[in-house]
Fold this sequence. Notes:
heterodimer; A: 341 residues; mainly alpha; ABC transporter involved in vitamin B12 uptake, BtuC; two-stranded antiparallel sheet; 2 strands; B: 254 residues; alpha/beta; Rossmann fold; 6-stranded mixed beta sheet; 4-stranded antiparallel beta sheet; 23% strand
Amino acid sequence: MTDRTVSTGLWNRLTWWLVALVFLFFLTLPLWFHEEYYLHALVNVFIHSMVAIGLRLLWRTGLVSFGTAGFIAIGGYAAGLLSRDLGISFWLSLPLGGCAAAVFAIAIGIPTLRLKSSYFFLISWATGEIIRLSFLYLFIPVFGGWQGFRKIPSPDTIIIPGILLIDFSQKVHWYYLALFLLCVSVFIMLRIDYSRIGTTIGALFDAPDLCEAVGVPTMAYRVFAFATACFMAGVAGAVYGSFNTFLHPESFTIIQSIETVSYVIIGGASTVWGPILGVFVVKGIAMGVRGIGAYEIILSGALMILVMIFIPEGLSGLPRRIRRYVTRRRVKESMETQHGD
Amino acid sequence: MATEPLLETRGLVKKFGGVAAIDMLDFHVEDGEILGVIGPNGSGKTTLFNVITGFLSANGGHVYLRGNRITNLSPHRIAKRGIVRTFQLNLLFRSLTVLENIRFGYHLHRENGVFGAFFNTGPTRREERAITERAEEVLVATGMADRREQLAGELSYGWQKTLTLAIGLAARPRLLLLDEPLTGISPTRVAAIAGLITNARDSGTTICMIEHNVNLLMDLCDRIVALNFGRKMADGLPDEVTRDKTVIESYLGG
């Protein structure tokens, strides 16, 4: 028993060192790397990572949403409307976009989150599609319909005279905005994971009935997880919209939602780092192999199947699996040598 | 107000597709007793627990906790009012450790909210430490101290059963409903578990337990209720109930 806790402690420390190194790498990357194409791609990677770690929280309760793209769209359109048509600062419309998605999630979640996971999956799918089609066919003068939602303003300039000028005219500024938002999201998720809220969400997956029996309001936790996931999707959508100055409903199809789920499955849901790893792996391969762009969904689908068969706990569970294998080998070997004596 | 029982059902009915699993049942639990519930398979014992604790909704009649109607409230609300139950099928948080499982029992006694938990405030940290200490006491009392870091899913059947009881004991409810707490426990440990149940009663938790081991119930219980076809077949002192003709015919066997 003590052996196990010691090695887990060591493993935790290694993970944290690795995370710190990766963080430093991405923090300093723009200083010596200036290719706009890759910085642009990384902004998208960070935005997707935010969505993926949000979805992981819902996943941990034992539910999965296939409507995430719709909630990204709500965040994007809401923040876009607020900043373009009402002249509200981006820095305020960003969290408000997230809140819009969260409020919608709560409204959908309260009647549907008590259903079996397979029904919730279908309803979330339908919800995502309804949202997308609403932006396509309703209030066309406002949302733009097939023309898309245009001219979303950039964030207001941040000036500290003589020291700092961020006007979002360069990719680097977006890069740091997206990285900052991802760090905030990760921090929030870690706080949840390491508090009893996270433990309770894990317990909910194991035995919802026992949770209820000891007085845990399971519905409240489910709604909280769904709302948080959608809040992050909404914030991601708000950044995405402003970054591209343009939103089109066809960017938010079921394919997008499925891909978000694939990040969680491929990377693994046991830690917050898993889904981020998933995004990096899928987007990394898609970026690295030229001409794969259009086939990205096939790639993530194939990866998802492979991971589910060979490493059900996701890529982030791979080191643990290897370690367990090595320990078993060692035990076996030592037993054999003992027999030899 | 001593006349008002801790828990009472009046005319309780639960039907499954036309078949009444509980049929106009008047049932009560007195304050501070250990009540045994016996009866053949399918006589409605577990269904009764499920309806009392809100996991199933009643089709008729009502459940009262100290005179307050609690029929069909959601399970966590009923738990909050002081009724905690265990499950027959060793329902546990299988991917959590034994200690973490027991810590869940204290959920109702937490005073710090989720915001305190999120920001890991001083009071929350103190409370979590206090909960761990109390959970350790339960670990020792239930004989699971050397299993504290083991995952609940990896325990043997008997220890899982003990753990479900430990969670219930940790919760220190007003009324603890135990669904077959002794089934599958190794004979050498039965006396210890029975002792835990008696101790819980002595420290203020009323116990109502479903159990098939009638010999054990004879020693442990203050009163026994026998159910059959969702109705009360007998209700009284252990001696009376086990000597009751209908009980012998339909359950205990000649």
